[in-house]
Amino acid sequence: MTRVIHDSGDGVQKEALDLVSSDVNFPKGHFPDYRIGPNNQIIDPEETHEAVPLKEIVAKETAQLLEQHRRLSVRDLKEKFEKGLSGASKLSEEAKRREAASLDRQVLLKKLRDVLDTLRGRVAGRNRDDAEEAISLVEALAVQLTQREGELIYEKAEVKKLANFLKQATEDARKVAEEERALALAEIEKARAAIEKVEKALQVHDSASSSREKEEIEELKKEVREARRIKMLHQPSKVMDMEFELKALRTLISEKTQLCNQLKKELAMIKRLEEDSSDLFELEGSDTLGSQLHIIPRVDGAPNIANCPIQWYRVISGGTRELISGATKFTYAPEPFDVGRLLQAEMVLNADKIIVQTDGPIENAAGLERYVDSLMKRMDIEFNVVVTQMNGKDYSSNSVHVFHIGKLRIKLRKGWSTKARESYSTTMKLCGSRGGGNAAARAVFWQARKGLSYTLAFETDRDRNAAIMIARKFALNCNVALTGPGDQGT
């Protein structure tokens, strides 16, 4: 039979209890002897006085806790949490040592049981019963050790929970301390800003008061001077009469000087006109295709040429001039036929001819050749235009038309309605608009046939110049020189 000795178990349990509760100091060796009184009140039999009501106890403890909470600062909480964390780490290390010791005991008990099993097989009789009894004792110890290991695991888990809780609490306390520090710094900065504002306000007030005082002093000085002047006026003297005469003389001299300077300028202008009147005017605008040239005075006071006859010319190689028919305005927009040539404007002023010309030959617009090449690759070359004049008269409608340039003919249509469609011939004329105006750089003159002509306004100057160049190339393929009225074909 297997016998279990309970004394050994009590000794192990007592030893384990001592190990677990080594840091605990119980005031008594047994549980306190309380009893429940009326209204679920706890009564201690050792107390001789009457039991205090539970509500008063709870109120008193609540007041103590609130007072203690008010006394504790964030730093004290942090220190307490750190102390608790260090205690938890100590308990964790002690639990690890106990776990290692328990493992060693399990190994020793297993070895002892193996030895007893071997001994039981070799002996007989009473010695065998003693061996079996020893084996049962070892098994009981193993069971107790297993229970103790479970308790240790549970205690270890609790210690870990406590350590994690204390660590989190420490972190929270640190965060609260940092937040409080940040709030305190913010309050300090606000206070500094308020102090600076007050100082600035005081400085502004002081400066304003000082400026007001200065202004008042200046006003007083002005009043004193005005009073003195009035006093002197009421008491005239010879000195004052002389001063008035001097002022009048100075004013007269300044007027005569201004008149003399004006006469000198007029004389110089007249001499300049007699010597060379061409220096009085110049051409304003860029010498490139797509720009607009204007005749403007170079100096102030130049004679008025509003009613003077004007004629534009293009200078061909060798100095020969070619008249541009219809170009008789102050403004002229160069067209592709003018590229590489000088442009001149001749005015007749008081029976004298005044000639102004561009600084250099007209240059082609940047990227115009590439644009023309890309358009000629299309099947249909069309441009959106607006008809401004028809047969020299203003056109009433401002609707958008389509100007179609083909390889054999040119067509003008509005929607499905065709306004004009003519093949290339010697009677067809196409050139830039020569009637002046702000939109001359975007306008063309097209004579479809004799008795039918249009002035068309394109969307851009590039479209206008590209249309003229493409139409002239297609007309040249048909052995037709497409030029403007009065121009000589090349």
TrEMBL record:
Residues 128-276 form a coiled coil. It comes from Setaria italica (Foxtail millet). Pfam families: SCAB-ABD, SCAB-Ig, SCAB-PH, SCAB_CC. Keywords: Coiled coil. The gene is LOC101767743. Residues 100-267 form the Stomatal closure-related actin-binding protein coiled-coil domain. CDD domains: Ig-PH_SCAB1. GO terms for molecular function: actin binding. Residues 380-487 form the Stomatal closure-related actin-binding protein PH domain. This is Stomatal closure-related actin-binding protein coiled-coil domain-containing protein. GO terms for biological process: actin filament organization; regulation of stomatal movement. Residues 54-96 form the Stomatal closure-related actin-binding protein actin-binding domain. Residues 281-377 form the Stomatal closure-related actin-binding protein Ig domain. InterPro entries: SCAB (IPR039640), SCAB-ABD (IPR032012), SCAB-Ig (IPR032015), SCAB-PH (IPR041144), SCAB_CC (IPR032009). The lineage of its organism: Eukaryota, Viridiplantae, Streptophyta, Embryophyta, Tracheophyta.
